[in-house]
What we know:
The complex is a heterodimer of chains A (145) and B (281). Chain A is α+β, with helices and mostly antiparallel strands and 145 residues long. In chain A, 50% of the residues lie in helices and 22% in strands. Chain B is of the alpha+beta class and 281 residues long. Chain B has a domain at 125-211 and 259-267: SH3 type barrels, CATH 2.30.30.30. In chain B, 26% of the residues lie in helices and 15% in strands. Chain B has 9 helices and 9 strands. A 5-stranded antiparallel sheet of chain B has the order 8-7-6-5-9. In chain B, a hairpin with a 2-residue loop joins strand 1 and strand 2. Chain B: Residues 31-88 form the Large ribosomal subunit protein uL6 N-terminal domain. Chain B: This is 60S ribosomal protein L6. Chain B: Its main location: cytoplasm.
Amino acid sequence: VFKRFVEIGRVAFVSFGPHAGKLVAIVDVIDQNRALVDGPCSGVRRQAMPFKCMQLTDFVLKFPHSARQKHVRVAWEKENINEKWAATRWAKKIEAREKKAKMTDFDRYKVMKAKKMRNRIIKHEMKKLQKQASKKGKKLQKAQK
Amino acid sequence: GEKKAGDKKAGESKPAEKKASQKKIREKTRKPKKHHASRNPVLARGIGRYSRSAMYARKAMYKRKYTAPETKIEKKKKEKPPATITKPVGGDKNGGSRVVKVRKMPRYYPTEDVPRKLLSHGKKPFSQHKRKLRASITPGTVLILLTGRHRGKRVVFLKQLATGLLLVTGPLVINRVPLRRAHQKFVIATSTKVDITGVRIPKHLTDAYFKKKRLRKPKHQEGEIFDTEKEKYEITEQRKSDQKAVDSQILARIKKVPQLRGYLRSTFSLSNGVYPHKLVF
């Protein structure tokens, strides 16, 4: 049922708080609610962070518990987490949301025009296929008769 | 002088490398000194952290010695106009001379030392008011008009007039908005800007040019009062020529930006789920 677990080396996405939007690796578990966390390649100092603000990702790094930041960084860069993260759908959705929020009035107009054109092309092709299908159907009916 | 020339030469040959000393010298001669904030942090109201003597040292008052301007002592006493003049006595007691003061004592002293300020003190007429312009509105900005018959239309901003109203144009061929005035408060400034550098706007486009004309001929007392007033607004030839003169320059620049023309043709509107406070313009 559960696929992502809190473990040493699990890369988590910080969803709210002062480091919202950054990736961190779980270095150690402090107690039921907090973890020692470090994000050397994402600008998060080594600190305690509550589990509530972390969202687990699919990535796990290999380093022993309470490893130094240097080792966390080495493991992070070896796995190339930053690139892998940017390639995930999750990260892309976040980026798209940000872009949408930053759109200016002119951008919204351009998007509207682009969508309109795209839908027209799609509709055009659909209509073509529909026509073909209906023609085929009519032919069959004629042949049957 | 020589130092400056030398620095300039070095600056020109190696613009990237600026020695710290050269920069310092240049900056000293260029900028006027900025005033430092208070060097005495406040512990409680009226109580500073440092004593007088400590502040003397912190402010480097030992370095700062101000002397009163010595011009009066150094220069020879300027030829002051004489305080008194001797004039000959005319009239009855002719002959002889009398001494007359050149600058006489005032013959009247008002009862109040500082004259009372008028009730209208500091209240300026509208023509002397300070005009403000939002920082987001610069020449060439695309504005969205919110009121008036052209509401929702996107329009190019040209300049701010003397009364503070904004001079704005469609351009006419794009969205039927002529050279017109718009109020700053009833306008949304978008971040889209058209490059308007070098566009010359005729000088005669002032508020008086755009002001509505009202005929006042109270000759007819009864009956025909409403007929004489000009009801229909007629577009004068001058307006047409001015419109052409300005628009031709602007259209050229609009064409350079892809899709801008269509953007200016479209109107702005809100729909479900669109909240102005969340939109970035």
